Amino acid sequence: MKSFSFRYDINGLRGIAVLAVIIFHFNNNVLTGGFTGVDVFFVISGFLMTAIILDKLNAGNFSLFQFYKARVERIIPALLAVCASLLCIGFIFFEPETYQFIGQHSFSALTFFSNISYWKDSNYFDISSQYKFLLHSWSLSIEWQFYFFYPLFIISLNRFFKIKGIKYTIFIGFIISFLSNIFLIPREPTFSFFLLPTRMWELLAGSLAFLYPFSFTKNQKKTGEILGLGLILFAFLYIPKLQPWRSYLVFISILGAYLCILSNNPQTFLKNKIIQLIGTYSYSIYLTHWPIFVFFKNINHKLPFLIYILFTLISSYILHQFIEKKRNHGLVFLLLYSIVVGLSYYVSMNGIQQRVDLSNQSDQKNYHLHNYGGLYIPQNSIITHFNPQNNHGKPSFILIGDSHARQFGNYLRNAHYNFITILKDGCLSLPTIQLDIFQKKQDTQQCKLFYKNLQKTLNENQTIDLIIIQRWDLYRDYYNEFIHNKLLFTHTQEKFISRLKNEIEELINKNGKQRNYFLIGDMFTINNNIPKCKIRNQLPFYHFIYPIHCYETIPYHQIALNRTLEQMAKNIPNLYFIDPNKALCNEKDCRLTDNNHKPIFSDDNHLSFSGADFVGPFLWKNINMDKLK
């Protein structure tokens, strides 16, 4: 183990890692594995922290206080500046709901438990990532937690076991953390993604590169770096978007970063001036790129890639030159930190809602939580019978599906239909396929129970029609990861449709052709939120300077997946396809409000009570017409 001078290869790794991350965040179809740039950062951090601690311990001048002080000066000032800027921008541009999230996430980012916060907040009705301005801070929280505990651990080992004990313990820790991650992925994928114990192996991979150095020849150094860079670029280009996250694929980029650092090539291929400059600014680029992207998403402006890059470079230059480079922050910094943390907590309480009038029920925050059409309708794969006294005690139909089926529950109950439901949010369950979007233990068990209860219900009601409503695009997009578990290559839409066709044919063959089966297509999704838009218009900036129009229609566009599902249904006897968008759209545009100007959607893809009451009659009119054919 030797002290080292400035490593151009490590700085270059930072550069390509942050480029991959920002490209992935802008368009994850370009670099599907670009998210692994964060994992490269973890390896670098583990290597550098181990080198810093052990070099000073060997020299006899390690100071825990100085170590923590250096980490504070390196990380917090720039993060503080970003959070303070978001609090100022949010006050001007965003209504209480969005501003409250900014406060919550600023507080968790500055106190370095944002990874824990996002882990706990993860659920089906959690806010979309487009509202999480500091979602990327989860990785900083992991690193900070590692920085806090790691030197204490090394000091203790060094006191009792010296370097040999440190080497063995770090290696064992690496293995335990990696195996824990593998074990927990199918059981608690969100935990394994966000928390330090199951991410620590990536940081310890960097530690191992320092603890177990190799003596390479000049050519071997070049070869090792080429192989490492090849693995990293391969991961960026070919690892699919993972849901859930799988560490055994991320291992490709981890191994690549490990090989690059271990090779320590003085004539690194990453010595290019542009890559080196990006590496120098990488922390500021990482901090600023995501809030810029989310800001434009929130104000419903499409951001061209070149403009996105330009804004990121300008903001990161300012942040680096005026904040990040300054390492002599004193009491004034501590005072500012306390003020911004306190302000973040204050904003997190209600988003300073006194800035607007929330007296109108339709304009209140958390609109989805109060107005989703499926509110209070039972799910979790249980069999529920509604209005059993009607229709001479005979159910008219069986309704199954996810939250897109559940959203019609109140409409159907209030319309006095006698019907049975089996519902599970985020679950598609057919004879041999169970796609569980959440991948949590309880949800997985309930998704498996779904088909068992469906089969039981169909056996007990052998002539009752079956209606299937799902958000089909969601399961299509993650079909590769959930079903085939392929390592590298994403399956096409046709593969999913082919599998779905086989599943439905088996369902029909198994449960008889004496009943009709109805497949309801995907509805269009929206970015604008009418209640939120109306509140936002009350803010002084929009009221006096830049009024925004809360559009009640959006341009019409065909959903390709629906055309495919419709064609599939034509080839299967007793199966009918209905496009729900025909209730809302003409050839030019699609409406977002009902006849009383109430929002049809409670969020970007779920119907409100009003929306279900508007679309429901169209669907069931068509269902009854098809039954008469």
Helix content: 55-70%
What gyration radius follows from the Cα positions, in whole Å?
Answer: 27 Å
The average pLDDT score comes to: 90
Q: Number of DSSP helices?
A: 26
C-alpha termini separation? 80 Å
As residue ranges, the low-confidence spans are 123-127, 483-490
Oligomer status:
single chain
Q: What is the strand arrangement across the widest sheet?
A: 1-3-2-6-7-9
Q: Domains counted in the coordinates: how many?
A: 2
Broad shape: globular
Class from secondary-structure proportions: alpha/beta
Number of E-type strands: 10
Percent strand: 5-15%
Report the major sheet.
Answer: 6 strands, mixed
How would you sum up this structure, described in words?
The protein has 629 residues and is α/β, with parallel strands linked by helices. The protein has 2 domains: 348 residues, no CATH class; 233 residues, Rossmann fold (3-Layer(aba) Sandwich). It has 26 helices and 10 strands. The chain has a 6-stranded mixed beta sheet with strand order 1-3-2-6-7-9, sandwiched between helices. β4 and β5 form a beta hairpin. α3 packs across α15 and α5 crosses α6. The longest helix is centred in the N-terminal third of the chain and has 30 residues. The radius of gyration is 27 Å and the shape is globular. About 2% of the residues have low confidence.
